[in-house]
Amino acid sequence: MVKTQREKAVLLFHALSDLTRLELLDKLKNGEQCVCDLTEALHSGQSRLSFHLKVLKEAELINDRREGRWVYYALNPDAIEDLEDFVRDLKETTRLGGASKSCA
Amino acid sequence: MVKTQREKAVLLFHALSDLTRLELLDKLKNGEQCVCDLTEALHSGQSRLSFHLKVLKEAELINDRREGRWVYYALNPDAIEDLEDFVRDLKETTRLGGASKSCA
DNA sequence: ACCATACATCAACAATTGTTGATAAGTCAA
DNA sequence: TTGACTTATCAACAATTGTTGATGTATGGT
């Protein structure tokens, strides 16, 4: 299935619209972490975090890498560029241009 | 009720995590619009848009202004700064710093 | 081969979010 | 004041999202 740019944005923002997931991202700012570290850090159940990590991964905000029994998650720098693009686009076009007034 | 910075971010991203709302923002890039214009542009029911506009407003992404019978909505430049701050913070701390390896 | 560990997936359920049509509230014009 | 018009709000319902505990899968140690 083909996703428009806007649908991709929806996916990205949805991934960011949850407290637990923002906390996960925050932890990952300190570098790669395995799930066991994250569950301990967030005092959370394992399946719960697995769910949220999946959401973040599907939005391509994070990458995973298996090493032995452990899976390490890390921030994906590409996603940050996507975010920057969106914000730039919104900003550039936020000129206080004249209202349409078509309904006056 | 006091909101942490992160809870504000959740609110902001939630507002952005919907196709209809992104379309609304897109329309508002052309300047202030009244609800009647927006309903026509998006081929959408009025109460539906009213709902989404409320979400955007509560996230402080847009402002409203009454003029006679009409209510005009417009992008709020401050929100864009909040977005920029978030992205900058995420970016700056995305150093590919060493993993913790505490579980090895 | 067996067991323990680390993580993913699933099903059942709970909570939140979005839609629709009806009604209410505010504004203006006659 | 009556009525038309624009928008907001509400209640009922539908759809999506998140949680929990149980089970499945892969890996490595003994």
Provide an overview of this structure.
Two copies of one chain form a homodimer. With 104 residues, chain A is of the alpha+beta class. Chain A has a domain at 19-79: Winged helix-like DNA-binding domain superfamily/Winged helix DNA-binding domain (Arc Repressor Mutant, subunit A), CATH 1.10.10.10. The first copy, chain A, is 57% helix and 13% strand. Chain A has helices at residues 5-16, 19-28, 35-42, 46-58, 77-92, and strands at 33-34, 62-67, 70-75. Chain A has a three-stranded antiparallel β-sheet with strand order 1-3-2. In chain A, helix 1 (5-16) runs antiparallel to helix 4. The radius of gyration of chain A is 18 Å and the shape is elongated. In chain A, 30% of the residues are buried. Chain B binds a DNA duplex (30 and 30 nucleotides) through residues 14, 18, 20, 34-36, 45-55, 66, 68-71, 103.
List strands and helices in order, with pairings.
Two copies of one chain form a homodimer.
Chain A: H1 5-16, H2 19-28, E1 33-34, H3 35-42, H4 46-58, E2 62-67, E3 70-75, H5 77-92
Antiparallel strand pairs in A: 1-3, 2-3
Helix pairs in contact in A: 1-4
Chain B binds a DNA duplex (30 and 30 nucleotides) through helix 4.
What would a concise description of this structure say?
Helix content of chain A is 57%, strand content 13%.
